[in-house]
């Protein structure tokens, strides 16, 4: 009887482990899909700003030229970040991450988007500062106003983008719940409980 019970317990653990691995793979695939879509959105914004900004900067003068030039320049960085983020998500195998690594990656990407949203507020404040400096007059007024307006626009887009991407990724946190059921943590030990 003891051998039958142990055999049944082993089978249950094996099936539970396979089911958990399937849930974990789906969770990671979903997280990586969200990252790819987010990077495509950022990359599209960047490519559009580079093209439009480059053309408009060459056909305008004064404040408008600085505005469009800054839009193009700013988005060279965005395009690089979007490309790196997309490639990282594409190269990651969802099945290669264990539970701990999956949780770490989920929280890492959320922290990056949330931190960037904070930086975006700083960008907008910096743009507003440049516009205020332009009011003081001087030979740099057009440049300061053009750069300031561009930085406010880029910061506002990035704030909405980063906050939206953070919320979209954080929405996936509920998918971790079934993977963590039965786990318990004390200060010095980890326990796992399976119900039969």
Automatic annotation (TrEMBL):
Signal peptide: 1-21
Keyword annotations of the record: Membrane, Signal, Transmembrane, Transmembrane helix
Highest taxon above the source species: Bacteria
Keyword Transmembrane: yes
Transmembrane annotation, as ranges: 37-57, 69-89, 109-130, 151-169
Name this polypeptide is given: Uncharacterized protein
